[in-house]
Design brief:
This protein has about 450 residues and is an alpha/beta fold. It is about 20% helix and about 30% strand. The strands form 8 sheets. A 7-stranded mixed β-sheet has the order 1-19-21-22-18-14-17, with helices on both faces. A 5-stranded mixed β-sheet has the order 9-6-8-7-10. It has a 5-stranded mixed β-barrel with strand order 23-26-25-27-29. Strand 25 and strand 26 form a beta hairpin. The longest helix has 20 residues.
Length: about 450
Amino acid sequence: MSSAAPRPADQDHLWSVDEHLEDILATVRPLEPIELQLLDAQGCVLVEDVTVPVSLPPFDNSSMDGYAVRVADVAGASEEFPAVLDVVGDVAAGQAELLHVGPGQAARIMTGAPLPPGAETVVPVEWTDGGLGEGPVSAMRARSLAPEGAEGHVHVYRPAEARAHVRSQGSDVRAGDRALDAGTVLGPPQIALLAAIGRGTVRVRPRPRVVVMSTGSELVQPDESLGTGQIYDSNSFALTAAARDAGAIAYRVGAVADDAETLRSTIEDQLVRADLMVTTGGVSVGAYDVVKEALSSVADEDEPGSGVDFRKLAMQPGKPQGFGTIGPEHTPLLALPGNPVSSYVSFELFVRPAIRTLMGLDDVHRPRTRATLTAKKALTSPKGRRQFLRGTYTDGSVSPVGGAGSHLVAALAQADALIVVPEDVESVEPGTEVEVVLLG
C-alpha cells in the first residue's frame, strides 16, 4: 500500500503545493494485483497484456437474415426475371451441423449463423419473396409460424457480389493479436471484448477502498433539523462522490464529533476496510481542531515513520493539510481542511492523484490547459500563495465563478475548472492567458 514514509514535518516550513504532492506520491504505492471475475474487474486497471486466443468472429457468418447462395446462381437476377432456387433448409446461429449449398440451391440463413459450405454470399431476405411466391417481402416469417419456409423455392430479385453480407473469420481480431494492453482501465467495451475472446477472469489492480469522514460537532446529516449554530455535513458527501468519480470504492462515515477519543476509535475501526483514509476538518489551529490530537496517537509505535504530519501549504484555499500513514498496514491518510471549497480543491490536487496511484495508473492528474481569462476586473491573489479559483471553461476561455471565499459551495457547483494563479503573481488582468485545471 505504501512503502516509503512521508517526510517529517518542520513546523516552520511553508510547503509548496508541489512538495506536498511529491511527498504523497512518493509514499503511496499501487495496490497488489489480484485475479477477478470480469464484472468485478470493472473500473480496474489491467496489469498484463491480454492476447487473443481465438479469432473474432471465429467463423465466417452472415450479417443479415436472408439466403446463403452461390454468386453464379443469382447473377443477373431482377424483379422481372428473378432467380428461382431450391431451398435446402435453415442455418441458424449456434447450429452445429451445416447444410451444403450446391448449384441452384439456397439455404435460409439467420444473422450470426455460419456461412454453409458451398455458399459464397448472402442475399438479404428483403431482396426475395421469402419463399411465399408473392413478391418482395420485408422480413422473414418465424419458423414456428411457417415451418414450410425452410423448403420449397425462393425467388431472388437482385444479384449479390461474392461475400456480400458475410462477416469474415478474424475480421474483428485474429488469434495471437493483442486484445488489450497492460494499464488499460476496464470499462464496458473492454469487458465485452474479454468475454468475447473467452476470458472469464483477468489480473488487475483492485479499485482502492477509500474511507471518508468529516469532523465537527456542528455538523448535522441532511434531512435532519438544524439547531442553533449547526450546519449540514456536505464535505463527506462531496468527497465520497469525488473518490468514486476517481475510480475508488468509497465509504462515507457520518460526521464525528469534536472529541479526540471518539475520532481516534472511529479511525481505528475503519482501518480494516481502507486502502486510503480521508478526513476533513479539524486540521487548523483552533482549540477544538481535534484531528491533530487524535491522529498523533494512532501511529504504530513499533514502526518508525508511521504517523501524520500537519503542514502549512503556500496555497489558497487549503493552507492547512495533513498527510501520513497509520495503523499496522501503514494505511495512507490525508487530512483536509473543513471549509467546503478548501476540502474539494485539496481533494482534486492531492487525494485524486493518490487514488489513481493506488490503482496503478500512469497518468494520475486532471488534464490541464491554457485559456484566456474572461472577467470584468483583474483577479487578485496573495503574494507567495498559489491560488486556485473556481471557473467555467469554454472553447479556450475561462471565467471565474463566485468569490475567493472557501465556504462558497454554490459557486463550486457551477465550476468545471480551477484557474491557477502562481505564487509570484498578485494580479491577473482580463485577456491574460492562465493555466486551467479541467475538472470534468
